[in-house]
Amino acid sequence: MEKFDRLTAIAAPLPLANVDTDMIIPARYMKGLTRSGLGRHLFRELRYIPGGDEEREGFILNHPAGRQARILIADRNFGCGSSREHAVWALADFGIRCVIAPSFGDIFAGNARKNGLLLIRLPDAICDRLREEIALAQFAPLTVDLIEQRIALASGETIDFAIDPDDRRTLIEGLDDIARTLRHESAIARFEASL
């Protein structure tokens, strides 16, 4: 899993509440056995005109700056719905490394942690202001510093955030569940030898 310590990148505002995992990646695109290629179907119903691959002009990820976004400023209850891990895979394959929102679906949040996607919970009012700031700054990059637990805006303002210490360490060290288990390899070997 790729380590996450500090990210300076364009952020895309997505002011939609209750974005479920089917909206993130429709089930019909989950037939493959690999994670690659899912990004082209990210927000399929929002990004494309029905029945084809013609992009909707007004959708943020179709905007030239939005195509380069690595941070998403979402609204409450992002990632609700089914337990599909493909939703996180589609975001990552598109290039999204961090999602900031007031709240997240519980299973989505677990899948995000296991796949190196940083989720930051901030109050509704701050998320609203961040989306406005992005528009005013014409997509000037934000810096998300996981080590300092701080977001730096183009204006120079900083916003502190809190994250579970275990999730923070896992992301900074780039540890997936297997790598976390292998840190205890010598203890596992001793246990197996004692059998």
Task: Give me some keywords for this one.
195 residues; alpha/beta; Aconitase, domain 4; four-stranded antiparallel sheet; four-stranded parallel sheet; 8 helices; 8 strands; globular
Structural commentary:
With 195 residues, the chain is of the alpha/beta class. The protein has one domain: Aconitase, domain 4 (Alpha-Beta Barrel). It contains eight helices and eight strands, in the order E-E-H-H-E-H-E-H-E-H-E-E-E-H-H-H. The protein has helices at residues 21-24, 44-47, 86-94, 106-114, 124-136, 165-173, 177-182, 185-194; strands spanning 6-9, 11-13, 71-73, 98-101, 118-121, 142-145, 150-152, 158-160. It has a four-stranded antiparallel β-sheet with strand order 1-6-7-8, with no helix packed on it. A four-stranded parallel β-sheet has the order 2-3-4-5, with helices on both faces. Strand 7 (150-152) and strand 8 (158-160) form a beta hairpin. It is globular. The mean pLDDT is 92.
